[in-house]
Structures are given as C-alpha cells and as structure tokens.
Amino acid sequence: MVCVLASREGELLDSEVVHGQQVAASLPRALGRLLSGAVSAVVVVTGPGTYTGVRAGMAAALGVAHARGLPLHGIGSLEVVAHGDPDPRAGGWIVADAGRQALYVAREADAASPSRVLMADFDAGVARVLSSDVIAIAGLVTVDPARALARGVPLALSRPALDRAGLSACYVD
User: Fold this and answer.
1) At 173, is the pLDDT very low, low, confident or very high (cuts 50, 70, 90)?
2) 170 pLDDT exceeds 80?
3) How far is it, in rounded angstroms, from Cα 11 to Cα 153?
4) Which of 30, 70, 129, 133 meets the CB 3.0–4.6 Å disulfide criterion with 3?
5) DSSP codes of every residue in 15-53
6) Residue 167, Cβ neighbours under 10 Å: how many?
7) pLDDT of 77-88, one tens digit each?
8) What is the pLDDT of residues 138-165, one digit of tens each?
C-alpha cells in the first residue's frame, strides 16, 4: 500500500509505504496522517493490481474526494512505475506482479496499455525492466513506489477528473 502527499508538480512531500499488512488496517491510518493539512485534489491508482488493493484504494480515494469536495484523478499502476524511472531516456519494460506466476507488462512509452502475460513467457531481451515489486527477473531495476507516485501526480492532474458515478478499475486479461 502506497499513499503520498505530493505537490501539483510531483514533488514528494510525505509518504507511507506499507508491506505485509492488511489494507483495511493500514490505509485509514496512512490517510489520516497524510491528510491532516490542506489538499487540493485526490489522485488514485486505477490498476491493474490486486483486486482488493485497487478497489480499496479507489473506495478510499472516492471517500476523501467526496467528503472534502475535491476533484478525483486517476493514473494507471504501470504509468506510476514509469514515472519512477531514474533514466527515462533509456526506455524499456514496466512490469508488475499479477499473481499466479503472471505479470502485467507494458513498454515504458505505452505504460497506459498493459497486458497480462505468464512470467515464463516474458522476455525483455536486452531491454531494461522496471518495477516497484520484487520480482525474479534478471537485471530488474526497482523503483521507489512513493517517489514514482508523486512524480505521476502531474500526469494524473493533467487529465479530466474521474466521473465519481462511473469509477472503474483497470483489469487486464
């Protein structure tokens, strides 16, 4: 679970990254701490990701946006990872753990359009592979998820606000 407080320009101001805890326990605590000050918009990761994680994040983001009368913007999880690239000129693959020995994958330049592939079928060739997950891929470059999410804020804010009545998560077959 990753929650950040970021400037509109993508500067990371504060963050909470939690591994190995139930979202139901860690998310409210993180939001309570990070939302103690003024906030002008809410950005939510729309997936792909775990069913529970994406839905819990979207429900929490919608609740905060509604309660505070703030716009709600979305960004894909692989787009977030792409924003954490320490050398974006190099290009390569963005991957995330899809569970059940599978990956969500996209070329860095097309991170908004991921595919789901079996880990055994993924071949990056000589290209770099980036992820915020720990995955058994040779040469994997791991990005800081909090910094990546903060850097993705300007992209999310550049898009129209999400229609709160029709929120939908990104699920990839």
Assistant:
1) low
2) no
3) 9
4) 30
5) EEE--SS-HHHHHHHHHHHHTSS--S-EEEE--SS-HHH
6) 16
7) 999 999 999 888
8) 889 999 999 999 999 999 999 999 987 7
